[in-house]
Amino acid sequence: MPLGRKIAITGAVTALALVGFWLYRQSAASRVEPPVELVRTLPPDATTVIYLDLAALRQSPMLASLRALAPSPQADAEYAEFVRETGFDYERDLDRAAIATVVRGGTRILFAVADGRFDARKITAQALRTGTRETRGGREIFTAPISGSARKITFAFLKKDRIALTDGGDLGPLFSALAARPADGELEERALRLAGSPVFAVLHPEPGTLAALAARIPGGLRSEQLVALAGSLRWITLAARPEGEQTRIVVEGEALSEDAPRQLAGLLENLLLLARLALDDPKARARLDPAERAALVETLKSADVSRLDRGDTKAVRLMLFAGPGLLAALQDATPHATAVAPLPATSGATAHRP
Q1: To 5 degrees, how large is the angle CA 319–CA 320–CA 326?
Q2: Among residues 326, 66, 103, 314, which one has the least CA distance to residue 199?
Q3: What is the pLDDT of residue 341?
Q4: Is the separation of the CB atoms in 142 and 349 below 8 Å?
Q5: With contact defined as beta carbons under 8 Å apart, do 201 and 178 qualify?
Q6: How far apart are CA 235 and CA 204, in angstroms?
């Protein structure tokens, strides 16, 4: 092959490779992680957001371990009827959910967006037995009473496999968030950071809320330093991710200055040291089951406290691993005789919220 032709072919292949790489980068940049996509549909003024990827959890031992900690109650007749009539069972058909709480006028309101396999025709027909339907902005919105409660659930299907709901009577804040779709909000930024975990929570409490909660800790356990530091935190995030047989748990507290994270880091390290010393005490050895003590020791050994600079905020991070031993110990300590109260049923699409 002539040299000129070889150079031309090489140049063409190189150009195609560069174009392909650019298209790939553009496509990757335009893709939105499922957790972020769900979180950005929630009201931006949410004080608490919880994300659950049940589809991922079903593939790991983590979900089974968590279920074991809360023994199932006897079958709920109303929920069993709901499953029969709609074909929807959240343990099987719910894949992902983002749940938010918003405080307005002193009232705490719940909003949720969930992905799964829904039969909209059956669900809406079941809701209309005791509920109502209206159309707003081209969307059908349904409201149904919660069984045994004066509260109601309002819901709408955003698309075939996505439902939005609230117990506040108005889905307007969700629709407003959908229309606005903020590009780089603080809540969305933290959701993106935690997107690799199938379970995470983001808390953005009002000033003074955490300090008020910390102040309610019984006097013998309360630390005035902890009360003061809690009041300075602007964000708290928690994430749990299965890694083999263990679950990695990461908790972060963010503040606007580095003083609170620095002091919190020192406080956490002291508490971990005291906990390790307590487990080595002969009285603790005699009181604790050997397997339970070994699990606690293993968890404390894995605990690590660090500080992070996140630009606008400074953070303190606590990371630890919960192994099967700890979950088994917690399961043994759980009073199996006490049934977990079933979630409130409704004649609408959200008979039981996950």
Answers
A1: 155
A2: 66
A3: 34
A4: yes
A5: no
A6: 5
pLDDT of residue 262 exceeding 90: yes
Cα–Cα distance measured from residue 194 to residue 237, given in angstroms and rounded to the nearest whole number: 9
> β-pairing, 304-309 with 233-243?
unpaired
Beta strands in the chain (DSSP E): 48-53, 94-104, 107-116, 132-136, 139-145, 152-159, 162-166, 199-203, 233-243, 246-255, 304-309, 314-322
Q: Is the pTM of this model over 0.70?
A: yes
Taking CA atoms, 318 is separated from 2, 3, 303, 321, in Å, by 64, 62, 7, 10
Q: In what order do the strands lie in the sheet with 314-322?
A: 132-136, 139-145, 152-159, 162-166, 107-116, 94-104, 48-53, 199-203, 233-243, 246-255, 314-322, 304-309
Which of 120, 94, 107, 89 minimizes the C-alpha distance to 38? 94
| Least confident window among 93-107, 241-255, 337-351 | 337-351
Q: Are 83 and 135 in contact (CB under 8 A)?
A: no
